[in-house]
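Internal tracking record. Fields below are filled automatically when a chain is submitted to the structure queue. Please do not edit lines marked as system-generated. If the sequence contains nonstandard residues, flag them in the REMARKS field before resubmitting.
Queue: standard
Priority: normal
Entity type: single polypeptide chain
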Amino acid sequence: MSEPETPKPIEIDDLLSFEQTYREKVGDESCDEAFYRIGLTLELGSELRDCWCEPINVVTLADTHMDGAHFALMRSEDEPVLYGPVVLVAPDSSERPHVIVGDSLREFLCLGCYTGYNFGELPHNPEVVIKSIEQATEPRHELLSDLCERFELAPWIGVAARLVELQDLYLDDLVVGD
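SYSTEM-GENERATED OUTPUT FOLLOWS
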């Protein structure tokens, strides 16, 4: 009996290519609106944000449009920045401004593949956000359906436990400047 095939890692270029294909399918304005609605306006590699809690060992990935909350890919000496982990940076949360939301771009995209990526409330109301993610039974937007199909995404099982595990694995690796 053969082992199940491990999904191919998703790289930044794959996500950019997907965005371009979607843009060609629906047009510029509709594409921008769709990415905005699912909380994933791509800002790959843009400058670090000027906020009190911005880690210096990250590269910006996307904006959520929720009180300055955004996603970033952590950089490490061992792995190229293409692969993650992915951190939610939430400057409006003084007690918990960082939440690791995937150990890779693929895992992050799977987390929101049915609900979208409007996770700005995760530091404030984790139970509510987790419940919403776990109760979703199908993608809530055409763009999410296309993402699932293109990258063979499936939602997480055991969201709360995995989030705790990710914090234990990576949170101490974030470096916040002075």
